[in-house]
Amino acid sequence: MNRDALTPHWNETNTRLLGGMVAVMVVMTLIAFALRWRGRSEKGRTLARDFGARTLGWWLLVLALLPTVLAGGWIVLAGFGVVVLVAWSEFNRVLVSGSGPGWRLLGFLFCVLLLGCAPALALHFSPTWLFYVLVVVQAGDVLQYVCGKAFGRHPFAPWLSPKKTWEGYVGGLAGTALLGAALAPVVGLDPAAGAGWGFGLGLAGSAAGMVTSAVKRCHGVKDFGTWLPGHGGLLDRIDSLCGAAPFAYLLLASGWVNSAGQ
Fold this sequence. Notes:
By secondary structure, the protein is mainly α. It has a domain of 182 residues. It is 72% helix and 3% strand. A two-stranded antiparallel sheet has the order 1-2. The relative contact order is 0.13.
């Protein structure tokens, strides 16, 4: 990494990418209002309430995090420095007295070393790669939630999270593959390679999410925090990035992908 990598920048492509995400959020907001208006049953009202709260949380993340990601340079480094500190603090907060050094070591591994691959991805390759990874895995989380609510019948891992279902899991992976293909031109990939990337990112993100679910279950808590509407804490929302960011960084660093995006 040279000094130029630490210089923030903003171009027309960044404006289009951020504008596209804002447009998606507007659509999600309209869906949230429609669900609230049409909710007749208790299940429908619960879905509308949960989706509305999650949409508000998404607005906060999109407006606060994506401009930081796309600007790159020292801005993404400083921004994710704050993210890492908040996530690590949330992880340590759920640990009970006597948890032992192993749990704290796991927190350091997840929140500092693995999550730290996210800004490294932007600085060593390009901010658009971090944008790609972040959007794909976070959209996969949303699709898992939606598919699970709509079609979920068979529990996926009830000992970790009673709400996770096979239908939601498979729907999320299918969605990440499709979105990975759709966004492939952003990082200079063809659609077939993008679909493979999306599927791999979905698997890595889901694995990280299961680890954090196990941590919460072992310590008897539902969420790492309460301040982010519909999501709990920051780590509850970005835990999948702890798996997806290192996965992407290692593949790119290995030279498996010739184009690192623009």
